[in-house]
Amino acid sequence: MEFPYFTEEHEMIRQTVRQFAETEIAPHAEQWDEEGLFPRDLFHKAGFLGILGIRVDPKWGGQGLDWWATTAYVEALTYSECAGVNMALLVQSDMATPIIEEIGSDEQKIAALAISEPGGGSDVAAIRARARRVGDEYVISGQKLWITNGTRADFLTLAARTGSDGYKGVSLFTFPTDVKGYSVGKKLKKIGNLASDTAEIFMDECRIPARYLLGEENQGFYHIMTNFQGERLVAAIGAVAGMEKALRHAIRYGTEREAFGKPIGKFQVWRHRFAEHLTSIEAAKWLTYRAVDLVNRKEAATREITMAKLFVGDLSQRVLYDCMQFFGGFGYTTEYAVGRAWRDTRLITIGGGTSEVMKEILIKIEGL
After folding, report:
1. Which pLDDT value is given to residue 1?
2. Residue 242 has pLDDT above 70, yes or no
3. How large is the average pLDDT for residues 269-276?
């Protein structure tokens, strides 16, 4: 049996998502980037196709499939040519809602994951937003930053402090955004991923029912750390697929564009560079697939996921830089997808934990 083993069902998902990405998203990618938002109805279309709950138990409306199905979905989504839309959909399907299925029971709509704060993102133990129990309610106050889907989310998967300082005092909540005291401060202006809304949000004595607590009080840190693994793995899968797609595009372009009387793809400097990138991308893919395989078998994979995100994140900067360079002036325009891809891939080394944080995690795992 070939590893990884993509079944016929996985390939059907890949074909369905690719068609969705190419027809419903790609034609509008540049426009939605310019507008800084995409239509809310796109979430409903994705939900109708069943791609927002691929691993969710069928009793909650999901497909109950495995991580290879998610891999096929994420890889095919790169054909949207719009990293902002991809990120917004992935927040819904693989970042904000997996925790709810694991330890909650409420049924919701469009979600945002509200962990990061102005004082830090990866350092979850330093969360300052507070939730205090008052009878049958929690009263929550604080601020969150870098919240994807934050301007229009129906609810947040929210982390707040319910106990002492440090990792032992953090809890998780499903937080409806229509409560009194909740407000969106501003929609942040970003360098890339422009079609996704990223917000600063505030909570001022917001009251929510105590039953909206996810899991046990003061145990949220552990669930967040587990959720981070899925987020980082999805990021690595998407980045590998994006690199491979961009490089194949560049190679094709190299047979069409001429300089000094011959196709630019015939120049040795580019032929050798592409050979190096093809090799590195293949290595990145199998490192990432190794992590997928471990997670799919429910085995410990923090080490492999961390390595994959670190390696893929740094590699994507080099590959997309060269792809954009290869297109010359056309690569420097937003009309060409390669220019937008180069711009957007910068987030891979920052979002979900920076490359520096990944290195610290690996050092600790190895006991150094």
Report:
1. 43
2. yes
3. 96
Between CA 76 and CA 53 the distance in angstroms is: 16
Tell me how far apart the alpha carbons of residues 316 and 251 are, in angstroms, rounded to a whole number.
16
Check whether 184 has a pLDDT greater than 50.
Answer: yes
Element (H, E) at 263: strand 262-263
Tell me the pLDDT band of 120, cut-offs 50, 70 and 90. low
Active-site residue, 231 included: yes
Domains and CATH numbers, the chain: 8-96 (1.10.540.10), 111-218 (2.40.110.10), 221-365 (1.20.140.10)
Q: Which of 203, 184, 200 is nearest to 130 (CA)?
A: 203
Nearest Cα to Cα of residue 232 among 338, 337, 304: 304
* Residue 352 CA neighbour count, 13 Å, CB half: 27
pLDDT of residue 164: 86
The enclosing H or E element of 307 equals helix 302-326
Catalytic residue among 24, 30, 200, 231: 231
